[in-house]
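Form P-L/3: holo structure prediction, ligand magnesium ion.
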Amino acid sequence: MDAPAKAGWDALVADPAGALVALDYDGVLAPIVEDPTLAVPAPGAIEVLRRLAERVGTLAVVTGRPAAQVVELGGLATVPGLIVEGQYGAERWVGGELTTPEEPAGVTAARAAPPAALAAAGADPAVWVEDKRLALVVHARRTADPDAELGRLDPAVRRVAEKHGLEPHPGKMVVELRAPGFDKGGVLRRLAAAAGSRAVLFAGDDLGDIPGFAAVEELRAAGTPGITVASASPEAAAVAERADVAVDGPAGVVTLLVTLSDQMSE
Ligand SMILES: [Mg+2]
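OUTPUT (holo model):
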């Protein structure tokens, strides 16, 4: 760990009440699985979240998924005080209450477009489109060569995005079309400002988490200590390179959070 990261860790431990601990869900708290509706937390993940919830000022899950879906899937309602920022901060769940915006006009207009555009581009039949109401996600995980398939479909997907005023955001074996103005960096800046956080930790595993890492780096430059953690996977090596610390998948994240929680209570 280099000096700024160590300072971030030490500040979290020294002042848990001033800490913001924010974690992605898929690939960080829950192992990635073929069927995303079966992605459940790693062993020990919920237990350590419950322990952290008693200690830290702000504990948040920051995900691209719909907030209610991840609460249900993860059993997150059992973690007292947890904030779940869903769809890159477009919606929020806290204390059993979901706040979610109107569906963006661009998504309504674009809803029928991706399947047609993909068919016209000769997409592999294993490509499918997930409708998240606030965003549309093209999934290539089930194809033989997801990166090549997405590369081939990229022009068609970009045309749909452009036509409907949506932004294309690449991720692991996916590209997501969503309304402009939402990313995990914005979520972290907002959470830290709202709580007056005095130290920040953010853990992610995918390209959509890099704006979150950038926000921690900005906070650090502005005097708030922080640390970024990658839940490393071969599918997104750039994420591990960008983070202060790389751990081995959700099991490694759980170990790191247990250490943090233990040190906070010493
Ligand atoms: Mg993830």
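COMMENT: The CA atoms of residues 135 and 178 lie 5 Å apart.
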